[in-house]
Design a protein that fits this description.
By secondary structure, chain A is α/β, with parallel strands linked by helices. Chain A is built from 11 helices and 12 strands. In chain A, a hairpin with a 5-residue loop joins strand 1 and strand 2. Chain B contains 15 helices and 2 strands. A two-stranded antiparallel ribbon of chain B has the order 1-2. Classes of the chains: A alpha/beta, B mainly alpha.
């Protein structure tokens, strides 16, 4: 009997030593942007991104070798298209995520259902949630993801470059004599624009324009009558759709040649993923807006 | 009761058969999913052998199992709901979805969600209130003799349903709610958000209702024979009717607040069973519970595996199967007239 106890004891000790040597990278505890405590390994090798924007950030940090799964519409950069898909960011496929055995999932508050995040955690998969609501928060998010993925240096360099480019646009438009009235159209039918609490509003303001739809409602709807009454000086149509849809919308607004924007041919189509994704590409969007709103100030660049 | 031994025997045979079907459905539901099929692994882990891959076990038991349970509960509830409404209104086309009771609870639930209530008990209670309101509207609209005529009942149901959808569209188009996307998915019927705790709460609410309805199934038989007959047989018509109505609405709204609108289940299953098993509600109630559960598990399975990416809301599947069946039934009952 005593012998048996001794054997068991030895076995336990051996098991404990084995467990200690084989345990993965040291765990650490971090607080995410929603104030949740997340325990994750120091150097997570298997990461699943739960939104296209997070995929873009991970690629921008050069950490794509860690990415084992992405969501539908993760289309930038092109390499992202070939990664395994785990559903769309509003309708995540729990089973596929679990099958990828992620060491870390990165979620975004605006879109990912909280129930899925809770389920993932109950399955012992750490989920770090981000909630970037403006340009500064996007840069903060990039730094945090850099910290999570052991790429702080790359993140700092990326953010420094973004800050520099943002400042360049802002100092240039500071010389502008006016702030043109911009109507930024995200929805085609019904007509939907963007309120104050969006990236696009911030970009319009930074680029020296004033957003006609500013207000507390994030994505306000407009009737055609209301838009005509606001008499925008610049139309910016943001769409994933191809040129022909743009031509149709343009033809629609062209029926009112007295509108300042139509009179001066200032109606433009822009790629929506430069504006509605909290990624480093927002700065590309900002520079584009600057050139569209104040072409006179950016002349020498073109 | 002279037919008691016979009934018991029949009940056992039928239940045995339905349980077998349910077990097959559960097995399929556990084995097949978006990451592939693992028939062997399910057998292994059922035989209490440890599955080689712990991830497979997680997928089977932590992700698919709660979902299969939820589907079974919801399918059972909606089939029973259909059966009870068909008996009470003596109308073969009655069903919670078609009558607008589901729509009413959806309106209640959406108002609850937009008010920021918690999913349970807040939203569930709002859904219950909504279903009761529509139920009494339907009864008031088709009161008295008219209740016997299926046309007037169906018409009032259709109108209430149309009104409810209008209210839902109004609420959705007025709201700037950031969870709008989720609401729309949920409305189309969605079982994907099932964790075992929620399923347990739902089961604790629904299983006693199933038992109560089983106890009342004999009275339901008598009610079908007509009010006078039932009264002479000692049935307290008012009490039984009210109990049935309230319990059914409670069950339906509990499932609606959980998984949105799943239409026509309460039509397909009770009718199929009535055609094969005959009209005795004492047999129909348990077989609706078991058969409805199996049917919903299989519908949900289709919803999960049909599309290559993501999934179809299961409400779309049930409606696509159910609506043609409904038309067939309508045609048949027209021929009988």
């Amino acid at each position: 009997m005593i012998k048996l106890c001794g054997t068991i004891l030895k076995l336990i000790v051996v098991l404990m030593i084995v467990a200690a040597t084989f345990s993965p990278a040291v765990a650490r505890q971090v607080t995410d942007q929603l104030g949740r405590q997340v325990v994750l390994s120091d150097d997570p090798q298997r990461v699943v991104s739960l939104a296209p924007s997070i995929t873009e950030i991970i690629f921008a940090l050069g950490q794509e070798h860690r990415l084992k799964g992405v969501t539908r519409y993760s289309d930038f950069p092109e390499e992202a298209v070939n990664l395994p898909r785990v559903g769309s960011y509003v309708q995540l496929d729990l089973e596929k995520i679990v099958a990828l055995k992620p060491a870390l999932c990165i979620a975004i508050k605006d879109g990912n259902p909280v129930e899925v995040v809770e389920r993932l955690e109950s399955l012992k998969i750490p989920v770090y949630a981000v909630d970037p609501r403006n340009l500064n928060a996007v840069m903060e998010t990039i730094l945090e993801i850099g910290m999570l993925l052991d790429a702080s240096e790359a993140a700092k360099a990326l953010v420094a470059n973004m800050r520099y480019r943002i400042q360049r646009v802002r100092s240039r438009v500071a010389e502008a004599s006016c702030r043109p009235l911009v109507f930024y159209q995200v929805g085609i039918f019904p007509i939907v624009s963007v309120g104050t609490n969006t990236f696009i509003h911030e970009l319009i303001v930074f680029a020296g324009g004033s957003n006609l739809a500013e207000g507390p409602i994030p994505y306000p709807r407009f009737s055609r009558e209301q838009v005509l009454f606001l008499s925008p000086e610049i139309f910016i149509i943001s769409s994933m759709a191809k040129g022909e849809v743009f031509e149709r919308i343009k033809a629609e607004w062209n029926r009112w040649p007295d509108l300042p924007a139509i009179k001066n041919h200032r109606i433009f189509l822009v790629n929506s993923s430069l504006f509605d994704r909290p990624t480093p590409r927002l700065v590309d969007g900002l520079e584009l807006l600057g050139r569209l709103i104040h072409p006179e100030l950016f002349e020498e660049e073109q | 009761m002279t037919d008691k031994p016979f009934l018991l025997k029949r009940l056992f045979t039928v239940s045995f058969l339905m349980i077998f079907i349910l077990i097959v459905a559960v097995f399929l539901g556990l084995s097949i999913g978006s990451t592939g099929s693992e028939f062997k692994a399910v057998f292994q882990s059922l035989a209490e052998e440890s599955v080689a891959d712990s991830m497979t076990a997680t997928i089977i038991w932590d992700i698919r199992f709660p979902r299969v349970l939820l589907a079974a509960l919801v399918g059972a509830t909606l089939s029973l709901g259909g059966l009870v409404f068909q008996v009470l209104l003596r109308n073969p086309l009655a069903e919670p979805y078609i009558l607008g009771v589901s729509g009413g609870s959806a309106v209640g639930a959406i108002i609850g969600i937009l008010m920021g209530l918690s999913r349970f008990p807040g939203v569930a209670f709002a859904a219950f209130a909504g279903s009761l309101v529509t139920l009494f509207l339907i009864l008031a609209m088709s009161s008295g003799q008219a209740i016997l005529k299926k046309d007037s009942l169906l018409l009032s149901g259709v109108m209430i349903n149309a009104f409810c959808s209008a209210v839902i569209m109004f609420l959705i188009s007025m709201s700037q709610h950031s969870r709008l996307h989720n609401i729309i998915f949920w409305l189309m019927g969605d079982l994907s958000m099932s964790d075992i705790r929620q399923v347990a709460i739902l089961a604790a609410m629904l299983l006693p209702c199933f038992l109560l309805l089983f106890r009342l199934s004999h009275s339901m038989n008598l009610l079908l024979m007509g009010q006078e007959m039932a009264q002479t047989m000692g049935v307290n018509i008012k009490l039984v009717t009210m109990t049935l109505l309230v319990v059914t609405s409670f069950m339906v709204s509990a499932t609606v607040s959980h998984c949105g609108l799943l239409g026509f289940v309460g039509l397909v299953i009770p009718h199929m069973l009535r055609l094969t098993l005959g009209p005795d509600n004492r047999v129909l109630v348990p077989s609706c519970v078991l058969g409805g559960g199996a049917y919903m598990i299989l519908c949900d399975l289709l919803a999960r595996v049909l599309p290559e990416h993501g999934e179809i809301p299961v409400g779309v599947i049930t409606a696509m199967i159910g609506a043609p069946v409904f038309i067939l039934l309508l045609k048949r009952s027209d021929l009988c007239r």
